[in-house]
C-alpha cells in the first residue's frame, strides 16, 4: 500500500511540474519583450466576494504546520550540502547541468533568464522555505535560468537521487512538496489571468502585495527590501518609466512609502487598486 501511495505522489509531482512549465510558457507568450512574471514568491489570491470584501487564499494545508521541512531536510543522509552565500553570489547559471533541487534555509534568491538577443528578465524572487530547481525531477537536463543570492543566504542543495528517495520514503514530506507545487500551479494560473485581464498598474499593485506577503498566514511583512524599478518592470512586463509613474502615484495616495534607497513599505490600502474595477 505504501509503495502504491508513493508511486501516486511521484506521479502527481511530475504532472504538476510539467503543468507549471506549460503555464509559464503561456504567460511568457503574453508578455512584451519576452518578460516572464515572477512566480516563486508566496501565493496571494484575492477574490471579490462583494464590493469591498476580500478573502485571502492560503495554499498550504494546516495539517503541515507541525512538520518542519528545514529540520527534516537536515537529517537526510548524504546527497545534500548546505552552502552559505553572500549577496549577489551565483548559485547556478543558465545552461548548467540540472541535477539537484535547492531549498532556501535563509535569505532571498533571484531567478533570471537571458534571451538569445541578450535581454535579461527576472522570473522569480524566492524566500526562506522555497524550493527551486525541481525541473530535474522530470528529466530537465540543463538549467533554463540562473539563480543568484539577493541577500546573505543559506541554501541546501539536494541531489536528484536523494530527493527522489526522500519523496518515496517520507509521505509527510511528499505531501508537503505536492502542496507546494499545487500552490505554485495556482499562482501561475492567477498570473495568466492577471496578464490577460488586468492593467499594468493593477499588476504592479498585486506584485507589491505578493512581495509583502499579504494574504499569507501570519503577519504581513510590510517592509520590502530594496528592489529596483527595473526588476519590477521585468516582473510585470512593462517599462521602467511606467513603474516609476505608478509608484509615485501609489506614494501620493498613501498606499506605499519609500525614500530613495530605503526599504519599501506597503500598506494594506494598496488592495484598493487590485479590487478596483
Please count the beta strands (DSSP E, at least 2 residues each): 13
Treating each run of at least 4 consecutive H or I residues as one helix, how many helices?
A: 8
CATH topology of the largest domain: Jelly Rolls
Radius of gyration of CA atoms, rounded to a whole number: 19 Å
**Separation of termini?**
51 Å
Strand order of the largest sheet: 3-10-5-8
Query: H/E element string?
Result: HEEHEEEEEEEEHHHEHHEEH
CATH architecture of the largest domain: Sandwich
Give the % helix.
Answer: 25-40%
**At the fourth CATH level, what is the homologous superfamily of the largest domain?**
Jelly Rolls
Poorly predicted runs of 5 or more residues: 31-65
Shape annotation: globular
Which class of secondary structure composition applies to the elements? alpha+beta
The description of the largest β-sheet is: 4 strands, antiparallel
Instruction: Name the CATH class of the largest domain.
Output: Mainly Beta
Into how many domains do the coordinates divide? Answer: 2
How much β-strand is present in the residues? 15-25%
What is the averaged pLDDT score? 75
Amino acid at each position: 500500500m505504501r509503495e502504491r501511495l508513493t508511486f501516486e505522489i511521484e506521479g502527481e509531482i511530475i504532472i504538476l511540474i510539467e503543468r507549471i512549465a506549460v503555464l509559464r510558457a503561456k504567460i511568457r507568450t503574453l508578455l512584451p519583450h519576452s518578460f516572464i512574471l515572477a512566480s516563486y514568491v508566496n501565493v496571494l489570491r484575492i477574490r471579490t466576494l462583494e464590493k469591498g470584501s476580500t478573502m485571502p487564499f492560503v495554499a498550504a494545508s494546516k495539517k503541515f504546520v507541525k512538520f518542519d521541512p528545514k529540520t527534516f531536510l537536515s537529517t537526510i543522509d548524504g546527497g545534500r550540502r548546505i552552502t552559505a552565500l553572500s549577496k549577489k553570489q551565483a548559485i547556478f547559471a543558465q545552461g548548467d547541468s540540472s541535477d539537484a533541487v535547492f531549498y532556501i534555509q535563509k535569505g532571498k534568491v533571484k531567478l533570471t533568464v537571458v534571451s538569445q538577443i541578450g535581454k535579461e528578465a527576472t522570473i522569480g524572487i524566492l524566500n526562506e522555505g522555497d524550493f527551486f530547481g525541481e525541473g530535474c525531477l522530470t528529466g530537465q537536463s540543463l538549467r533554463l535560468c540562473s539563480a543568484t543570492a539577493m541577500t546573505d543566504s543559506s541554501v541546501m542543495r539536494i541531489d536528484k537521487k536523494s530527493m527522489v528517495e526522500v519523496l518515496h520514503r517520507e509521505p509527510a514530506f511528499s505531501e508537503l512538496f505536492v502542496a507546494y507545487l499545487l500552490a505554485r500551479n495556482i499562482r501561475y494560473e492567477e498570473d495568466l489571468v492577471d496578464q490577460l485581464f488586468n492593467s499594468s498598474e493593477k499588476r504592479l499593485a498585486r506584485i507589491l502585495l505578493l512581495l509583502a506577503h499579504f494574504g499569507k498566514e501570519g503577519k504581513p511583512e510590510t517592509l520590502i527590501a530594496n528592489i529596483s524599478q527595473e526588476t519590477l518592470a521585468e516582473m510585470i512586463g512593462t517599462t521602467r518609466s511606467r513603474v516609476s509613474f505608478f509608484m509615485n502615484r501609489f506614494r501620493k495616495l498613501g498606499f506605499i512609502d519609500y525614500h530613495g534607497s530605503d526599504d519599501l513599505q506597503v500598506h494594506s490600502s494598496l488592495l484598493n487598486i487590485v479590487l478596483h474595477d
